[in-house]
Design brief:
Elements (H helix, E strand, L loop, with lengths): L7 E2 L22 E6 L5 E4 H5 L4 E8 L4 E12 H9 L11 E6 L4 E5 H4 L5 E6 L2 E2 L9 E3 L12 E7 L31 H19 L3 H5 L1
Parallel strand pairs: 1-5, 2-11
Antiparallel strand pairs: 2-3, 4-5, 5-8, 6-7, 6-11, 8-9, 8-10
Bound molecules: ligand MTE and molybdenum atom (MO).
Length: 223
């Protein structure tokens, strides 16, 4: 099996992220996704409706920037490109030059993605994983899945998609560990200022302790 540079296979699919000290956010009774930003008027669309527009199945590996990869995950959902064409473009004034998209989760997590990367054929708004509805560890009720980009692009518990005509303000602009804007796994675009190779060994020491933290969840369930 070929993995992107600097990645190692882990068993199962750990719950991971910047949020491990919190339980996953509760799933709302009627989940909606708000579409806002550079649209004429914001709209709220039931999450299930977005994920059901154009059902696809995709098997892909998942790569966290910290160096672990979960392999052979089977996602189901709708390509983001379909959501954009059917539900977003009609909301835009003609000629609005959308350049960036912000995906926000119910826990406040955000990922900033260039529109062209978000429109790639392998980017899904997913509501099922391995034949089951997404569980809370992995992003219930719906999440973004962009397997060609590191995990931090793949916002879970999606509740808002905001469209921008220029790069939005970037919270970690001055951080030496700022995330890479494009985060393409095959280019090893982990960080903006540091080459991927340099940070690999640091991350490696963190994977085991962080996995322990998340072990109560999905690893056990997936066996
Ligand atoms: N809402 C939300 N989405 C998130 C995160 C988060 O903390 N909150 N962490 C990101 C990171 S860093 C990773 S590696 C993946 C982990 O996905 P998993 O928990 O399904 O393994 O989720 C991403 N999406
Ligand atoms: Mo990650």
């Amino acid at each position: 099996m070929t993995l992107p540079p600097g990645q190692r296979v882990v068993e199962g699919f750990p719950r991971f992220g910047t949020h491990l000290h919190h339980p996953p956010p509760p799933v709302p009774e009627h989940p909606v996704i708000e579409i806002d930003g550079a649209v004429r008027a914001p709209v709220r669309v039931p999450a299930g409706e977005l994920a059901g527009l154009d059902r696809r199945e995709m098997t892909a590996d998942f790569h966290c920037v910290a160096g672990w990869s979960a392999t052979g995950l089977r996602w189901e959902g709708t390509p983001f490109a379909t959501v954009y064409r059917l539900r977003v473009e009609p909301l835009l004034a003609p000629g609005t030059p959308i350049s960036h998209v912000v995906f926000e989760g119910l826990d406040g997590f955000e990922s900033i993605v260039e529109l062209d990367d978000a429109l790639a054929a392998d980017v899904l708004i997913a509501d099922r994983l391995d034949g089951q509805p997404l569980d809370s560890d992995h992003g219930a009720p719906v999440r973004l899945v962009s397997p060609s980009q590191y995990g931090f692009i793949n916002t879970k518990h999606l509740c808002r998609i905001t469209f921008h005509t220029a790069a939005p303000p970037d919270p970690d602009k001055w951080s030496p560990l700022a995330s890479h804007h494009r985060a393409r796994v095959w280019e090893e675009e982990r960080h903006r200022y540091l080459p991927g190779r340099v940070v690999r060994p640091v991350y490696r020491t963190l994977i085991a302790p962080i996995r322990k933290l998340s072990a109560r969840g999905s690893i056990a369930r997936r066996g």
